[in-house]
What does this fold into?
Amino acid sequence: MPDSLTIELRSVAEAAIERSDRLTAVATLGTGGEFVFVEPPTVSFVAQSSASGGIQVRGELDARIRLTCRRCLAENEESFVVPLEFRLEPGLEPGVEDEGVFALRPDGDVVDIGPIVREELSLAMPEFPECREDCRGLCPICGVNLNEATCECGSSEPDPRWEMLRKLRV
It folds into this structure.
């Protein structure tokens, strides 16, 4: 599959089109290292013409990612589905676009919805990945994973970074 998701304007004007493809160019998302894709995400959608002369797109994006927990640094895999629903409208100026409504800028006889789909995928990625909601993280002194074991390193010792506040409280 090419790295773009194109819709032929003539085909969608005649009848709704249904498509399913893999997104191979997800490396452009700039993940920052918190997660990697286990396999290329799959996008499935139906595109149909709207009464305004635009295109209505509905579908979903399935992805499986490998996350590194921000608290305990454990790796785990997670699957998720991102619903897709947006419109491409003719005559919209760039910057005037609204949530779920984008300017229809055809490139010849086709329109590329790949950037919109990749943006939706990028926005759906977890900002602060965690292995679970109640993750206890790592001990700041000995580094043991507190989800798997308890440590005896003297966690009753006060954190020296709070010393100035303790002095103010007295």
Q: What stands out?
A: The chain has two domains: 6-135, 136-170.
